[in-house]
Amino acid sequence: MPTSMRAPFMFGGEEVAPGTRRLVDLPVSKLSNHTPVTLPVHVLHGRQPGQTMFVSAAVHGDELNGVEIIRRLLRTIRPESLSGTLLCIPVVNTYGFLARSRYLPDRRDLNRSFPGSMDGSLAARLAHLFLNEVVKRSQIGIDLHTAAIHRVNLPQIRADIIKRQRARELAGAFGAQVVLHSSERSGSMRKAARDVGVDVLVYEGGEGLRFDELSIKAGYEGIVNVMHHIGMLELPDGVDHTAINDSIRPPIFTHQSRWIRAADGGVFRPLKRLSGAVSQNELLGWIANPYDDGEIEVRSPVRGIVVGMTTLPIVNMGDALYHLAWPEEFGAQRDVPDVVPDEDEVL
Length: 347
What we know:
Layout: E1 9-11, E2 14-16, E3 20-30, E4 36-45, E5 48-57, H1 65-76, E6 83-89, H2 94-99, H3 122-133, E7 140-145, E8 151-159, H4 165-174, E9 178-181, H5 189-195, E10 199-206, H6 213-229, H7 241-247, E11 252-261, E12 266-270, E13 277-278, E14 283-288, E15 295-299, E16 304-310, E17 314-315, E18 320-327
Parallel strand pairs: 5-6, 5-7, 7-10, 8-9, 9-11
Antiparallel strand pairs: 1-2, 3-4, 4-6, 8-10, 8-16, 11-18, 12-14, 12-17, 13-16, 14-15, 16-18
């Protein structure tokens, strides 16, 4: 289709011409003091036809790295260079963002409220709006997350890489160091999107209420990699998509993971860091009693890679200390369920 013949993109009752960008406010609700709340969406409508992709952040209001990732993306991506349409939502959960909270005012988790409903709770209404106005307008989505507060995640992609071959392909194109298999969980945006035929990658990196430059940079570069992979971005003359894809280091695909938890309360002194390789029975750190000389060794029951860990030295019995995953080639390890914690599970 010639560029001049491409139709404008209709979004939220507004018309976005090819090669232009517009910020569209979707009405959500009102605060208790009658202040209106909207869902601002940046619409970048390319000159050339192509796929529609959304990038979202702050579904949990205290997960901030994605907000900065999208800000950098909007500074560098020009709609006139796009093939297709890019929808960017820097803050989905405005309520949580303002309150520095993971949740909505009613204490509901937005990422457990999909597909939502028009006349349900506040979380259900926001989920319904996002699903119908953003997700269903797209073919691909990237949802940006961090670990919960007091935990940090290695930059990673989570997707169903066993049942969803397309998701596995896109996860490989993203270029994160690790891809964790994660089944689609009921109530999550990823599950609701898959039910309407949209592939969504969940990016995890860093920790809640903190900026982490490594995670921000990896997230930004990963989104651009995916856009190159699906042909949304123009490349300089003489450079093809295959060359770009071949330059991306293949990620480590993992099918299993588990958290190592504290056997007792005390002060935790870790030995391993993110991305570190761990051998079976390797010493990971110590939990010390602050009132005497006693301490407990923390050892790994499996061989794997550190993809997440606590950042809080003070621990109670049962607290999560290290999140370990292992590559497909390691095979199944005994006494470990074939499951990974969901992208936003509080552990």
